[in-house]
Amino acid sequence: MSKILLINSSPHEDGCTYTALVELQSELKKNDVESEIVWLGKKPIADCISCGFCRKHGHCMYKDVVNDVAERLDEFDGIVAGSPVYYGGSTGRIRSFLDRLCFSAPAEKLAGKLAASVVSCRRGGASEAFAQLNMYFLMLNMVVVGSQYWNQVHGNTPDEVKQDEEGLQTMRTLAKNMAWLLKSIEAGKAAGIEKPTYEPPMRTSFIR
After folding, report:
1. Which uninterrupted H or E stretch holds 118?
2. What is the rounded distance in angstroms from the CA atom of residue 145 to the CA atom of residue 122?
């Protein structure tokens, strides 16, 4: 059975971001897709310091949740990054997590997986945070999944989020789309359609 990793980067384990992810999780289950919520906790997550350790050893030098998730990537067919909105952007915690995960994990561990971001806010800044998170996935050969609207919920408390009918419906539609794509990918494999074979990456230098 397919499985999706749901990342909760809010410092509140059962807060607004969690409420959105649970709605997504519930709909995934109805569509025969397993999921797991991983909470990043309240402790700081170290930033990437561009030391090159991962290029030599295949994993980040810091022993924390980033490496824990990286070691389990083969278990998951997709990743959803969830974050509250802080000053028009996502949390520093999720950015540090994704900076290191996306840079240190072997590219083939992420390529072809489904990806999406989910953000929660009281009022504004959601679309900026949403776009910021999607930037990670759009350059890693991942398949970014859309919904009927940008994946955001509004509310200052979990109870208020539960009153955001459009936001919760957006989560359910996202789950339906992820489930449909996963089943389509499996059907493609059964029909002999293989994943793309990529050319070696080229890096253009603008300094001549």
Report:
1. strand 114-121
2. 24
The CA-based angle 60-63-67, given to 5 degrees, is: 55
Question: In the structure encoding, which two tokens stand for residue 62, read together?
Answer: 């810091």
Q: Distance between CA atoms of 30 and 169, rounded to whole angstroms?
A: 14
Label residue 107 exposed, middle or buried (CB < 10 Å: 0-12, 13-18, 19+). Answer: exposed
The Cα 50–Cα 103 span in angstroms is: 9
pTM of the model: 0.96
Query: 54, 60 in Cβ contact below 8 A?
Result: yes
Average pLDDT of span 80-91: 98
Confidence (pLDDT) at 208: 72
Q: Which helix (H) or strand (E) covers residue 82, if one does?
A: strand 78-84
Q: What does residue 35 show for φ and ψ, rounded to 5 degrees? A: -155, 160
Closest by CA to 77, choosing from 32, 127, 41, 14, is: 32
Taking only the tens place, the pLDDT of each residue in 133-148 is 999 999 999 999 999 9
